[in-house]
Amino acid sequence: MKKLLLTFALSLFGVMSFAQIEGKWKTIDDETKQAKSIVEIYKKGDQYFGKVSQLLIKPANPNCTECKDDRKNKPILGLEIIRGLKKDGDEFTGGTITDPKTGKTYKCTITRKGDQLNVRGYVGISLMGRTQTWQKVN
Questions:
Q1: Signal as a keyword (predicted)?
Q2: Cα diameter, the chain
Q3: Which fold has domain 21-136?
Q4: What is the reported pLDDT for 60?
């Protein structure tokens, strides 16, 4: 009976952690296929946010000079690029993601598949965007 309860508890933990996005993720550029940075995703209240915690490729400009909001001219290292995501079933949606290179902000949806996140930024509807695959950092 104890083995059955332990198996159930571990299975439940596995399912619950599978759908979570909190932690550190290596960003992979969808065009160059190179690792660019480490983004740490964390939860505040019922929303999820993500900030650049490490740069793997030195950017041409270390600040977000193209950002239009409160992030303008802030260092990319430590910059909050994901804001306001909420969990909706297996997806995290309703928030935004900012590209520090261009300063553009997009609607964002994230889904987790094992040790990978599919991070989709888009304008208007989800069909009008692009997806990056980020890898879990252990």
A1: yes
A2: 61
A3: Lipocalin (2.40.128)
A4: 87
Mean pLDDT by 10 residues, the chain (138 residues): 42 50 93 92 97 94 95 97 97 96 95 96 84 94
Q: Contact 24/38 with Cβ under 8 angstroms?
A: yes
What six digits make up the tokens of 31? Answer: 């065009």
Could you tell me if 22 and 39 are in contact, meaning their C-beta atoms sit under 8 angstroms apart?
A: no
Alpha-carbon distance 27 to 110, whole Å? 13
Enumerate the H helices of 19-137 as residue ranges: none
Q: Report yes or no: 86 and 48 within 8 Å, Cβ to Cβ.
A: yes
Domain regions of the chain by residue span: 21-136
